[in-house]
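Support request from a user on the community tier.

User writes: "When I paste my structure tokens into the form, the page sometimes reloads and wipes my input. The last time it worked, I copied everything first. Here is what I submitted, just in case something in the input itself triggers the reload:"
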């Protein structure tokens, strides 16, 4: 089922940052973007930007995200790619899996899945396989009821191991992941695998909240005959309660920080400082970057006490 990367006109391997345009980037997102840039540039890779816009699009968000990344001095190679412009690629991958007998229609509602017991050999919360072995007659009945069908992967493993530069070997659950949602939109796990391979991305640096999804994605890549990228899942930024940083935590976006009088250079220096590094520009930070020395713990911030314009902490 191997597919040749067709977007990768430039054979230089690439890293990437792939935000969802659901709102403005906050300090946690900006820090992950900086890290993805540092990992890519320090290893001679191209750095690509992809907008994961199959879901949760807020008007104007992607333009502001790109402007904020540029204001911090992050640069990227080639045009920005949008997932919404790549639907035929995802369809082609789904067709290959279907032709190989690797998919099935699922009519379950979210509620039914929550109420069903977890699959006997599966991880907690994994899809229990309700629709996996329905007869054709049962499928016809469900369709006649007007149930919208999602398309799921017929996985033949329950776990898969990936290697992560910061976490080492990570073994995690694989279930019959959704490939196409009931509304016809390709699912994130499928799209990300197709995109990374076709764009020549062999280095995935992203927040460690996505580490648990990675075994599924690597397994899916393997089934599609695509290379599995190198992974580095970086610690998140948390608020003082230990919860993932969010807009409601205060002045967390670049626009918020600018309104307080911070310059983009100061914000970059703040992000660099949180990584044990220094510099007002990405290239100054790059000169000191060593992934082996990165803090392994989340960065806990209290946005309203950060970098006041007077310079007093
Ligand atoms: N678009 C995803 C997010 O913003 C990240 C996807 C990825 O890095 O694989 O959470």
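"...and here is what came back when it finally went through:"
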């Amino acid at each position: 089922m191997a597919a040749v990367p067709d977007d990768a006109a430039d054979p230089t391997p690439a890293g990437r940052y792939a935000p969802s345009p659901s709102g403005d980037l906050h300090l946690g997102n900006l820090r992950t973007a900086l890290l993805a840039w540092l990992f890519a540039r320090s290893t001679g890779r191209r750095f690509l930007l992809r907008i994961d816009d199959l879901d949760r699009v807020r008007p104007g968000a992607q333009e502001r995200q790109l402007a904020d990344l540029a204001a911090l001095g992050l640069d990227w190679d080639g045009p920005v790619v949008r997932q919404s412009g790549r639907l035929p690629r995802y369809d082609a991958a789904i067709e290959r899996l279907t032709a190989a007998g690797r998919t099935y229609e699922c009519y379950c509602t979210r509620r039914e899945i929550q109420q069903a017991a977890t699959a006997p050999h599966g991880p907690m919360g994994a899809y229990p396989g309700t629709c996996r072995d329905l007869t054709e007659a049962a499928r016809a009945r469900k369709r006649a009821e007007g149930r919208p069908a999602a398309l799921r992967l017929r996985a033949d493993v329950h776990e898969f191991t990936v290697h992560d530069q910061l976490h080492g070997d990570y073994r995690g659950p694989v279930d019959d992941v959704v490939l196409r949602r009931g509304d016809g939109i390709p699912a994130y796990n499928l799209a990300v695998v197709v995109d990374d391979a076709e764009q020549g991305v062999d280095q995935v640096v992203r927040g460690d909240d996505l580490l648990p999804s990675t075994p599924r994605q690597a397994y899916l890549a393997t089934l599609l005959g695509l290379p599995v990228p190198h992974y580095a899942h970086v610690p998140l930024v948390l608020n003082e309660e230990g919860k993932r940083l969010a807009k409601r935590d205060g002045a967390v976006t670049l626009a918020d920080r600018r309104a307080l009088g911070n310059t983009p250079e100061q914000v970059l220096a703040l992000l660099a400082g949180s990584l044990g590094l220094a510099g007002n520009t990405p290239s100054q930070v790059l000169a000191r970057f060593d992934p082996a020395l990165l803090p392994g713990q989340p960065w806990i911030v209290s946005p309203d006490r950060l970098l006041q314009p007077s310079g007093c902490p």
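Agent notes: The reload is a front-end session timeout and is unrelated to the input. The pocket of glutamic acid is lined by residues 18-20, 52, 192, 206, 210 (CB under 6 Å). The first helix runs from residue 27 to 42. Escalated to web team.
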